[in-house]
Amino acid sequence: MATNPEAAGTPLLAGLNAVSNGDSKASIRYADIGINLSDQIFRGVYHGKKAHDDDLQNVVQRALEAGVRKMMVTGSDLTESKNAIKLAEDFPGLCYATVGVHPCSAMSFTNHADGPEALLQELETLAQKSRNAGTATAFGEIGLDYDRLHYCDKETQLIYFAKQLDLAISLQMPLFLHSRAAAPDFERLLRERLDHLPKRGCVHSFTGTLEEMQNLVAMGFDIGINGCSMKTGENLAVVRAVPLERLQLETDGPWCEMRPSHASAQFLKDAPPEMMPKAVKKEKWRGDAMVKGRNEPCGIVLVAHAVARIKGVSTEEVCGQ
C-alpha cells in the first residue's frame, strides 16, 4: 500500500490536511518520541508471515485522530534507519527519523562485508544527509544492553557505542539512547564526552533506578517514559521524580504497551473507555480497529494519562511541557 501522503484521494491525505487546518477531535497534542513504525508488523506481517492487510495508513490515521502531531521513528540498524527516513519522507512534518545501530545489533559492525569502518562511514553519510534534509533529528538508537548479551557480547557493544558516540559528536546531533542493566559503563562513556555533547538527548524506554535517572538528568539528558517504564512500584517512584521539563513521552510500539498487570494500571481506572480505539485479535483484523498486543502511537494517550496521574498534574500540563 502506498504511504505517500501526497497520493491524491487517500484517507491519510485528508487526515493530514485536517490536522493542518486545525480540525481534530483531540484537544491535546502529543509527540511520540520513540515508535518503531517501520516494523513489518504495521504492514500486517508477524514473525515473517502475512496475517492481514498492510494497515500502516490506518495506524497513522488513528494516531492523528488521537492528537499525535509528531513521531520520531527509531532506526535500529543501517537498514531500519533507511526505512525510518523513508517514512519521514512519506509523512513530512509528522514523522522524523533517528539513525544508528542498537546495541543488540552491534555485531553488524563486525559482520559488515567491508568491515566496521565502512559501516560507520555509511551511518555518518546517511545521518548527515538526512539531518540536512530535515528528516533525521537524532543519532540513535545507540547504547548498551547487558540484559540480552545473547545478541551481542559486552565488549563489542562497548566498542561500537563509543565509536557511535564519537560519530554523533562529529555530526553534532542529539542522542537517542538505550540502557539496560549497564548503567556504570553507560554513564562513564557519556561523561567522558559530555563537554562535546551540547545537544545531549534522551535515554528512551527508561526502566532504571531512581539514582540512575538522577545521574542522567544531572548530565542534562531527558528521560523517555512508556508502558515498560511503569511496570513496578519502583518504576512509578522514578516517574514521579523525573523533572517534568526532562520527561518525554513515547510508546515504543509495537512493544511496551500499557497492560492491566502493570503497576500503572491503577492510574488508568478513570480513563474514559473511548480514549482508545477498539482492539481485536489479528485473526479478526479490520481496518478500523487496533490489533491486540500490538502497541500503536495512538497509545500515547494512555502513557500521558498515567504519567499525569502519577505526578499529580493535568495531562495538558504534561503534554504542554
TrEMBL record:
CDD domains: TatD_DNAse. InterPro entries: Metal_Hydrolase (IPR032466), TatD-like (IPR001130), TatD-type_Hydrolase (IPR050891). GO terms for molecular function: 3'-5'-DNA exonuclease activity; metal ion binding. It comes from Meristemomyces frigidus. PANTHER family: DEOXYRIBONUCLEASE TATDN1, TATD FAMILY DEOXYRIBONUCLEASE. Belongs to the metallo-dependent hydrolases superfamily. TatD-type hydrolase family. Keywords: Hydrolase, Metal-binding, Nuclease. This is Uncharacterized protein.
